[in-house]
């Protein structure tokens, strides 16, 4: 059997609890595969594109006929979506652009693959963004534009405000991230620093008909926050962005100013925004798998957020208080504050490191990133008593590693790191917590 988790067998060892946790995690990964999600959402019937939206009262249909059909994909799902869109639409697709951060897919015929940078914007991103905007601006009223928006789009859709350089935006992003600014506020700032966020792609595509399919990577699935809402009418203002920057002690370069996002209703009258993939899909699949393995499942009522180390301890404490055969499942996004550029680690690994100090025999906490990249080459890590034993064997201190934000070095040395490679999807961070 081929595993999404590449070191599945090495991690399991002789632990039944580890095998269960990793099996549940793989069910989550399968559920958020972009190709699977798109095939659940879209189909062509005759000369119509049919959209099956779980939150909508009925299917939505788009006439294909003789109209031109364009595609734009932005974010960590773009390259995995592009071949599916080409296969679905075939000759009906006029042309498209996919902007992602991984290796381009082979065999694309009508969709141009552009590679950008992440997590910091770059001149490559600016050039690619201008290409996308130019394509959208060429769309006419009787055209159909299909846009797929996914995590990472905020960084990729870089087209700096007058007086700004993309390097200045990168510096602002790093400063706000270091201060632990929540993703919603961070993206309010970013909406007002680029001419391709905060509804700007909707404005560029106007007056064409637009179907925007959105994969959520933010807690609460706020469509206006995901990738800074390029197809969503923005309710925030440049004044709000300025206030967020001031609270974090940051500032714009001299001579630069925030842009205002488009507010005119006409730009959004012919656009339909649909959430087609989110952490809830992973949670539902993990719940089913865990129940099949005999666990009583509790899914957290709200997406988790806050400091990763505090969350790790609190989840371990909740697990300790749970009954035997309990499975606690979470989706969300934590933060790590105070880490220097030299620190090696990510949110999920740091959460596991903090949980390691609290877990007892027969308990396990497995936090992991859905995109397989927890601020580096690894997806997450396992925290259980076997990890603690491995740490002792290697002379590792969880407390010291936490203080230095050095979770990757800790878990690669102990051998309890999670390896998936880049999964070409991105919904949120996920957590499986099990009690034997």
Structural commentary:
This protein has 436 residues and is of the alpha/beta class. It folds into two domains: 8-31 and 280-435, MOFRL domain (glycerate kinase, domain 1), CATH 3.40.1480.10; 36-277, 3-Layer(aba) Sandwich (Rossmann fold), CATH 3.40.50.10180. It contains 16 helices and 15 strands. It has helices spanning 8-12, 16-31, 34-41, 78-89, 123-137, 153-156, 166-178, 183-191, 200-205, 238-247, 279-292, 308-321, 347-356, 385-393, 398-404, 407-414; strands at 42-45, 48-51, 60-63, 69-74, 95-100, 111-115, 144-149, 209-215, 271-277, 296-299, 326-332, 363-369, 380-381, 417-418, 429-435. It has a six-stranded parallel beta sheet with strand order 6-5-4-7-8-9, sandwiched between helices. Strands 10-11-15-12 form a four-stranded mixed beta sheet, sandwiched between helices. A three-stranded antiparallel beta sheet has the order 1-2-3. Strand 4 (69-74), helix 4 (78-89) and strand 5 form a beta-alpha-beta unit. Helix 3 packs parallel to helix 4 and helix 13 packs antiparallel against helix 15. The radius of gyration is 22 Å and the shape is globular. The two termini are 25 Å apart. The model has no long low-confidence stretch (mean pLDDT 95).
């Amino acid at each position: 059997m081929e595993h999404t988790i590449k070191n599945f067998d090495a991690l399991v060892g002789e632990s039944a609890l580890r095998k269960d946790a990793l099996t549940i995690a793989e069910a989550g990964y399968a559920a958020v595969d972009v190709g699977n999600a798109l095939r659940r959402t879209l189909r062509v019937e005759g000369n119509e594109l049919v959209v099956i939206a779980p939150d909508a009262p009925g299917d939505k249909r788009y006439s294909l006929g003789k109209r031109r059909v364009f595609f734009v994909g932005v974010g960590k799902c773009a390259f995995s979506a592009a071949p599916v869109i080409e296969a679905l639409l075939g000759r009906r697709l006029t042309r498209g652009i996919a902007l992602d951060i991984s290796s381009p897919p082979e065999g694309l015929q009508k969709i141009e693959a552009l590679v950008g940078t992440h997590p910091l914007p770059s001149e490559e991103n600016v050039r690619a963004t201008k290409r996308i905007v130019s394509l959208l601006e060429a769309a006419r009223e009787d055209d159909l534009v299909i846009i797929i928006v996914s995590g990472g789009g905020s960084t990729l859709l870089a087209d700096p405000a007058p007086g700004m350089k993309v390097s200045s935006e990168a510096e602002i992003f790093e400063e706000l991230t270091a201060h632990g600014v929540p993703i919603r506020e961070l993206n309010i700032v970013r909406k007002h620093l680029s001419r391709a966020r905060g509804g700007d792609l909707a404005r560029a595509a106007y007056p064409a008909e637009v179907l925007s399919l959105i994969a959520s990577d933010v807690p609460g699935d706020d469509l206006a926050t995901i990738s800074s809402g390029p197809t969503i009418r923005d309710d925030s203002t440049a004044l709000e962005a300025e206030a967020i920057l001031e609270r974090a002690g940051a500032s714009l370069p001299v001579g630069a100013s925030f842009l205002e996002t488009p507010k005119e209703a006409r730009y959004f009258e012919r656009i339909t925004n649909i959430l087609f993939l989110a952490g809830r899909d992973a949670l539902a699949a993990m719940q089913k798998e865990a129940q099949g393995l005999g666990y009583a499942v509790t899914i957290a009522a709200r997406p988790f957020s806050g400091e990763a180390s505090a969350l790790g301890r609190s989840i371990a404490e909740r697990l300790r208080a749970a009954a035997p055969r309990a499975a606690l499942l979470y989706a969300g996004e934590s933060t790590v504050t105070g880490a220097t550029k030299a620190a090696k680690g990510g949110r999920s690994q740091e959460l596991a490191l903090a949980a390691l100090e609290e877990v007892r025999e027969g308990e396990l906490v497995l936090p992991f990133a859905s995109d397989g990249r927890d601020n580096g080459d690894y997806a997450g890590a396992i925290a259980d008593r076997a990890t603690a034993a491995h740490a002792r064997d290697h002379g590792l201190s969880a407390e010291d590693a936490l203080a230095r934000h050095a979770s990757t070095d800790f878990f690669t040395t102990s051998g309890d790191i999670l390896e998936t490679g880049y999964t070409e999807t991105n919904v949120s961070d996920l957590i499986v917590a099990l009690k034997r």
